[in-house]
């Protein structure tokens, strides 16, 4: 297992490094059109061919990977912070606070994740600039994805509240805010780390689903979701296999995360 | 008698929770709907054929909806009489749209769940019985692969391979069910009394039905409740991309058209279905535990 975990880390680091070098590897950018070569198969000039309006698919995959792999962790960080704030505080305060916070959490969890995403996405304007659409998509993932993590954190903070060292600290007269910041929050760190890493692949997959359904990142900005939307135009699987490169890359990255996370899962459980 | 009272209390608590969650969810949806950008804008008001009185009447109607509580109360009042409003994009009553499309989604989700549970349980049970590391790794790898593919891609592939949408739903749900059921069964099979039963030479079927199912059953039922929610979620990409006219496709169309009243009603309906599934699983699990005790 250790070997696979190391291999997964190497794969993730390689993909992130290559995507960060997109400006050097594909200096023409993701939006440049080669009108004379629209829908071209892979060639020396265009390693993965071009899409139906003549944009270099390799460049789009690189830039799309960068967007997905940089913003999914940002959304995961936001959701983890929210989970720490809501779940951690609710668990620490206990009583009605805990019950109230968990009722809201249950309300969010009672709706299937994709349903919740498309509902909230529909509440926001759809005709926005590509950059705003990127921010809206990942902000939404971050702002809605905290619920299950909050549940775990609430129960962990609740048990910490009853632990001997916290009781002792409270008896010593340490004020509540300091108690939470100095004694409870640091002990939630392992769960927070685990929740952060678990959220990343979940958000990558969610963005891909939203993108394919036309509710994700807007054109011409590439992301894994918008790149996978190209598969909709295929007539058969073997027709243009190079169009599956974004899917293969996504599966490889998410699988690598699963291997890296196999240890974190135990912490989160 | 005491057990029956406890069961009745549990059912009552679930009914109250479901009702409170649906009411709260409805209120939140109505609030979001009311606060969403563009709520005050009505294309009808720009119609040059309308006279000033009609435009004024439309504005007055909008003004009445400004108070969120009044807006929610009126929506609730109408819903109690079976009037769920009219879809902005499709111009049809929401109740009619839901009635027309619900059977297909129910069928899709039902068959998908059956398929996913059949495959997941077959693999999980065989892995627990055989206890061969390579086989366990293989089944985990198969389910892990499906877990790493976006649901929408599985739906697209089902179109490309010409397989029924229910199979796509099944493949989306299967890895989640497999993961939990495998862990539960593996844990149950490692219990001392089951190891003893095996050592005494009891048949695998007897061990399964007499010793493993009573231990893992209630937890598997909880997974069944959650799997309904996953399957309902999976219905959106499958119906949208496979061209199946169900509630999932309706929700997708409503989202694309920003048909918020329609989306709000679908959201409440889906919340109700998933809550009922989870509560049902919990109550049945409680009954099973009671019988066992």
What global shape of chain B is seen?
elongated
What value does the Rg of chain A take, in angstroms? 22 Å
Proportion in helices of chain A: over 70%
- Uncertain residue segments of chain B: none
Number of helices of chain A: 11
- Rg over CA atoms of chain B: 24 Å
Q: Report the portion of residues of chain B in β strands.
A: under 5%
- Name the helicity range of chain B: over 70%
Biggest β-sheet strands, sense, barrel of chain A? none
- Span between N and C termini of chain A? 19 Å
Label the overall shape of chain A: elongated
Please write out the topology.
The complex is a heterodimer of chains A (269) and B (293).
Chain A: H1 2-20, H2 22-25, H3 57-93, H4 95-109, H5 113-123, H6 130-144, H7 147-161, H8 164-171, H9 176-212, H10 224-228, H11 245-268
Chain B: H1 2-35, H2 52-64, H3 68-80, H4 94-130, H5 133-147, H6 151-160, H7 165-189, H8 192-199, H9 204-242, H10 247-256, H11 260-292
Helix pairs in contact in B: 1-3, 1-11, 4-7, 4-9, 5-7, 6-7, 6-9, 7-9, 8-9, 9-10, 9-11, 10-11
Quick recap:
The complex is a heterodimer of chains A (269) and B (293). Chain A has eleven helices and no strands.
Structural notes for this entry:
The complex is a heterodimer of chains A (269) and B (293). Chain A is 71% helix and 0% strand. Chain A is an all-alpha fold and 269 residues long. Chain B is built from eleven helices and no strands. Chain B is mainly α and 293 residues long. The mean pLDDT of chain B is 86. Chain B starts with a helix and ends with a helix. Classes of the chains: A mainly alpha (269), B mainly alpha (293). Chain A binds chain B through residues 103, 106-107, 110-115, 118-126, 201, 205, 208-209, 212-215, 228, 231-232, 234-237, 247, 250-251, 254-255, 258, and chain B through 20-21, 24-25, 28-29, 32-33, 36-38, 144-145, 147-153, 156-157, 160-161, 229-230, 232-234, 236-237, 240-241, 251-252, 254-256, 258-260, 263, 267, 270-271, 274-275, 278.
